[in-house]
Amino acid sequence: MARTLLLAFALFFNHAYAMIQLKDFYPYGLKNGDRNQTRRNDDQFDGPLKLKVPYPFFSGVYQSLYVNTNGAVSFKKGIRQYTPEAFPLNDTMLTPFWADVDTRNWGQIYFRETQDPALLLRASKEIQDIFLTHMDFTARSLYITTWYDVTYYGGNNATSVYDF
Ligand SMILES: [Ca+2]
């Protein structure tokens, strides 16, 4: 019990107060082989983007995904909704930062799938370190999506920017 509480506190503390620096992100950007969004936009998405390795997620196994401007990766369809909702949702999605992101004036969204051995090893170790019940986890493929210097609806290079 104490170990569980300690882990929960450590996770909360880490998420509440620690800031992840750009240098700690998985390599991103065109120089690392990423694609970027086909056009600057508000409330749009790219996809379906075919996966090399199918992605099992809850009750489904997905062959493709959608990268959504508003801070989400989805599997069944693109998401234009800019106001987040509480889970559970009807849409199958991962939401690192679901908000009203707008890249019309500033910011980029990069994405790629990779089987780079060094990155797979890094991801495997991170999952093993965080999820103590998955000490034997081995990543077979990574889909890296980076929202770089994006801003909110109507923003530009003079407004606050976010990276995730
Ligand atoms: Ca938006």
From TrEMBL:
Q: Which PANTHER family match?
A: MUCIN 4-RELATED (PTHR13802), SUSHI DOMAIN-CONTAINING PROTEIN 2 (PTHR13802:SF59)
Q: Which UniProt keywords apply?
A: Signal
Protein name as annotated:
Sushi, nidogen and EGF-like domain-containing protein 1
Q: Which species?
A: Lingula anatina
| UniProt superkingdom | Eukaryota
Q: Provide the NIDO domain boundaries.
A: 96-164
Signal sequence span is 1-18
Q: Which GO terms describe its biological process?
A: cell-matrix adhesion
